[in-house]
Amino acid sequence: MKKWFDTDTFREILNSILRNKSRSLLTGFGVFWGVFMLMLLTGGGQGFKQLLMKEFDGFAQNTCIVIASSTSKPYKGFEKGRNWSLDYGDVDRLKNMVPELETVSPTVSLWGKTVSRDEYTSSRAVVKGARADYANIETPKLKYGRWLNDADNLQERKVCVIGKRVYEELFPEGGSPLGKRLSVDGSYYTVVGVNWNEGDISVDGRASDSVVIPINQAKRAYNLGNTIHLLCFTAKPGITMSDVTPRVKEVIARRHLLDPTDDQAMFLLNTQLIFGIVDNLFKGINFLIWLIGLGTLLAGVIGVSNIMMVSVKERTTEIGIRRAIGATPNQILGQIISESIVLTLVAGMSAIVFSVLILSGVELAMTTDGMLKAPFQVPFWTAVLAAVLLAVLGVVAGLMPAARAMQIKPVDAMRDE
Amino acid sequence: MLIELQGIHKTYDNGQPLHVLKGIDLNIERGEFVSIMGASGSGKSTLLNILGILDNYDEGTYHLDGTLIKDLTERQSADYRNRMIGFVFQSFNLINFKTAVENVELPLYYQGVSRRKRRELAMEYLEKLGLTQWASHFPNEMSGGQKQRVAIARALITKPQIILADEPTGALDSKTSVEVMQLLKQLNQEEGLTIIVVTHEGGVANETDKIIHIKDGIIGEIEENRSHSAWGGSIIK
Fold it and tell me: Which residue among B45, B78, B107 sits closest to A328, beta carbon to beta carbon?
């Protein structure tokens, strides 16, 4: 008998869809809009998530940072409002007493320093002292050179890793700055690396604004003594940060004679918690996107079904004639369902194409220096899934009208209009 | 015997049972040119629907070319209709958005004939009916007579055993009516087609060789009309 798909069948379908162009267009628009919203919102939502995640660029997801603050409760003879600072003793103590911690790394930071290359070229920056293992806390994205190493610190070498913005201001001509010497507060440091991180988290200054030097060198150059400004640590894999932080607080509080119930004396920034919040937020947003998108799509499909119903009613005579001259009910069923599938697929596919185009435009607008800030594009398999879903919905939409068309008897064609 | 009807009964049940055919016995030979005449409500359309396998009957037997036509599936009846019977309707029943040649092709499309073959055959039949230059016209660009000739071409293209014509001149003026009847007569004589015309017009019935009168669901008089002299011999009333 007949093949399931051939050009004739397709012509028949196309013919009847194109016969009522404006109606087909309006009907298809419902589906179009549903798919368009779904695709645009999923792509956009994912893009914004990536964009937000970018703010945490480089930060390990299980990092916690301890910052000393003034006490808010009197304790052991001390008045409230006492200022205290973290010191190197805390680093060793934490490492020894909290075995769940992987890396414990101290940093110091000195704000508003002028870094100059020569008398004409200078830049404002944050001078940070750090150890080699700080790379485990905030992973540097090295464009040139290397990160600080343990030898730099032990030998108190005068070397530095500069941030992206500092590099761009001091070396506007581009090229590798490695081996160049920069003056910071009268001391000269040799550039050994450029960190391209763009995270916007500004715990002791953004990476792009910093000049990182070995912490021992910073300690000496700025007479910091035993004081450190921040204490960063990561937990071992598989350990939840929130389970460890109370112990960390306890250890530090005991050492500095802080009231263990004083929540203000010590501030702990737990990035895992923040990542969790962002993650949950986008999970919620995604759920809403799918709810709205699928709802709109469903409304569109019901629209298709409805219009097909009207169209079948209108074509009673035509279908009756076809039946009288030899069309089997299955052929009629096939035709109506195929019409529905084609209508939904064409509308849905153009929506996919259209949303991909728009998202490409967004990506183009978000691209600076040939670097894409965040991918907004709909993932390929989501689009494929959407196309398959559309075909299925097309069949579903066609079912009821087709069932009605099947009931049309050839005699119906013979009745005089 | 091409058509054999025995004791056909048909009752419509729309709330209140309506006994339309009350025992029809009818034989039609191959190559006959017959008309079925009756007033409206006499059951002639129902009889035509049964003959055309468009409708079921309740009692009796209907043999078409030796095959018992009873309790067929929709698929079977569609197949029989497609191969054995050509329909010509009062209101032409052409599909408006298809050209003349596409309309003529349609039965072959449902037979699964390839497009080129279909087009070839359809053009052949249009030529036979003198419609070659109208092939690519749409039905609403044609006159009633032309439309009916397209419909006849469509009925002929499957080389059916029987042509069933339901008031084929009902929507035509008298001049065109004569032409259409002449055409049917010619097809009967030259091709040896069995043609059954249902009508309520005496003039139309007179063009046929045999007139079967049906009244209140029963066959009345069967008039041999070889001389075409019944009803004063003219199609024009």
Answer: B78
For residue A7, give the amino acid letter: T
Q: Which of A270-274, A297-301, B48-52, B190-194 has the lowest mean pLDDT?
A: A270-274
Burial of A242 (0-12, 13-18, 19+ CB in 10 A): middle
Determine the Cα–Cα distance for residues A186 and A182; give it in Å rounded to an integer: 9
What's the pTM value of the predicted model, to 2 decimals? 0.68
Helices (H) and strands (E) in chain B, counts: 7, 10
In a mutagenesis test of the B interface, which of A325, A408, A411 is the best target, namely the one with the most B β-carbons within 10 Å?
A325
Q: Is B35 helix (H, G, I), strand (E, B) or coil?
A: strand
On whether the CB atoms of residues B113 and B77 are closer than 8 A, the answer is: no
pLDDT value at residue B73? 86
Res B150 pLDDT > 90: yes
Structural domains of chain B sorted by starting position, each given as residue range(s) with its CATH number in brackets? 30-53+81-224 (3.40.50.300)
Among residues of chain A, what percentage have pLDDT more than 70? 94
Residues of B in contact with A325 (CB under 8 A): 81-82, 87, 106-107, 110, 154
How many beta-carbon contacts under 8 Å exist across A and B? 71
Strand partners, B212: B36, B222
Distance of CA B228 to the CA centre of its chain: 20
Angle, CA of A241, A246 and A249, to the nearest 5° = 110
Render pLDDT for A49-77 as a digit per residue (tens, 0 to 9).
888 777 776 666 778 889 888 888 888 88
The answer to whether the Cβ–Cβ distance between A325 and B55 falls below 8 Å is no
Strands A230-235 and A101-116 come out as: antiparallel
Q: What is the per-residue pLDDT for A379? A: 81
pLDDT value of residue B236: 46
